[in-house]
Write the structure tokens for this entry.
Amino acid sequence: MNKSILHLDLDTFFVSCERLMDSRLIGIPVLIGGTSDRGVVAACSYEARVYGVHSAMPMRMARQLCPHAKVIRGNSQAYSKYSNIITEIIRARSPLFEKSSIDEFYVDVTGMDRYIQTTYLWAKELRDEIIDETSLPISFGLSTSKTVAKVGTGEAKPNNHIQIETGYEKSFLAPLSIKKIPMVGNKTYHLLRRMGIEKVRTVQDMPMELLERVLGKNGIAIWKKAQGIDNTPVVAWSERKSISTERTFEKDTTDVYNLKSILLGMAESLAYQLRSSNKLTSCVSVKVRYSDFQTHTKQKRIAYTSLDHTLIETVQELFEKVYDRRVLVRLIGVRFSNLIGGSYQIKLFEDSFKMIKLYQAMDHLRGRYGEDAVKRARGMRARHVKQMNPFNGQMDGEIIAPTPKAEMRPKLEVPGLRV
Ligand SMILES: [Mg+2]
């Protein structure tokens, strides 16, 4: 049986949220992102795109291209709130859905034709409900695979929808620019252009082996996508999708200073794992198990983030709340859940720009020298969280007990980096 996959994507999501909060922004060019010279455009309205502005562009350049644009810092709390409202609407109606980023969803509607008139009608009703409830513009593509549905959404925008029926996938993709194929980033695009490839049709007509020779495994994947072949499943999204770590003490303890510094190290390590997997979390929980095996957990919803300082602060706040007995502690743990893809939001806030630069420098060192290369001094006691792929289900990391050696390790000297 053919699959039926729906892809939904909010149009200029951040800008649309800002317009809900301030109607004066409707119809004018809007730039969201860092307002300093070093800031980056996190999002922009269609009115700004006309001037050649696009996201990830330096803010200074965007302002030169479109000097009369209104520049806004961004408000990740508000965007997270609207994202959650839309998630709940989709959850209530859908048999199986995946939230792939803050404003993007896939729904597997395979077989629904048997119960309702057509899946296309069902998708339109879902879209109408989202627009009625939130007043946010949203587009969708409906087809037989994630790739074709997503490309469809892109073609339907702004504020519209499209269906690519079985058998028409290849001809739908053929006239489009190869840039439209998900996976074809800037680098690949320019490489393909140098080979004289501009339209998807050209890739469709060439032997797969040729693309493989130039791009390796990616070449095969791109060639298949260009044919409209994509069997990637919609992976059920749930609040439980999480990464976590916990530690059982050999000897039960009431050393609050020690407990706090271990939690800090855990938060720091999990945040690094989020960033390395290009994920954000919006729910933090802290668990304490006492020596009598009573287990207390507290959790808090926050705006989507992967930044240490926000996550550490939340973990510490939760620990203060959950640690309310003066009893020996047997185990502590930290969990980040409600994970979604995407890291572009990280560029949003100018006040954390320096912080982001610091994280990038730290992550770079960890990538090169191992996760222990840099740590906050305060979190030194939690030395190491076992490396693993945190996103293939439920699993726990492992904190290895601190050794004196860890503290004695020579510090890495990096110019301009203080940790
Ligand atoms: Mg979008």
